[in-house]
Amino acid sequence: MTQRSHKRILIGAASCADADSALRLARILATTGTVDLGGLFVSERTLEARAAMPGQRIITTSGSMILAPDKNQIRTLLQSEQRAFHENLSRFAQSVSAVWNFESRSGDLIQEVSGAARSWDILLLGYRATHRRRGSVVVIEPPAGAPNLRELGSALATALDTDAVVLSIGVDPSPNHQTFSSSSALLDHLSRLHAAAVVVDLSASVFRSFQDLRALMDIARCPIIITKPAEGELRLEHTAHIPPVPT
Length: 247
Hints:
- About 35% of the residues lie in helices and about 25% in strands.
- The protein is built from 7 helices and 11 strands.
- The termini are far apart.
- Strands 5-2-1-6-11-10-7-8-9 form a 9-stranded mixed beta sheet, sandwiched between helices. Strands 3-4 form a two-stranded antiparallel sheet.
- The chain is globular and about 55 Å long.
- It has about 250 residues and is of the alpha/beta class.
């Protein structure tokens, strides 16, 4: 009989829509064994700072320009997003009989979540779906290789009815595996892919700073699954050369 695994999964998000994208992946991971679940909602200070600036305007999805919400409206919106994330996590945890907890913080999403993830096995960074096309599961493999990372990417791809693509630096290419001479070249290629999720091992990754991880999210435009978050030591300074985010 195959032994079922036990994983501790932390979901970090700055909105309910971001959290829902991560919860979808967490549900897949929960099918392979038992899970403990954590939710961390981060109210990013940049929103309140923007609301405090007089005459700020934003462009809606329809292209019209409107006044940005004020501080009270922002606060009400964030409370609503936090409550929805909490309720969705609670329902999911009950459906899989998982031990769970939820926390809310204010600050920078990447820094807050990265610090909190050190006692967890997997960190899921949510990113709301912005397209309907089915994308690939992208595995960013460390130079030394990571069979477990490939297995995780393959399992997610099967569950999502898509394919898995492996990207790495300095490793001989193989089927569904592309190698690059630098992190810059790898990320430039990723910016042109349509990804459903990105899987990365922080303990041996090219992403060594908060700025690197934030840029990865902006470039990938999808949820990020980080394994072994406790073994990575993110720094404040920028380390990897990240290509511009495509517009």
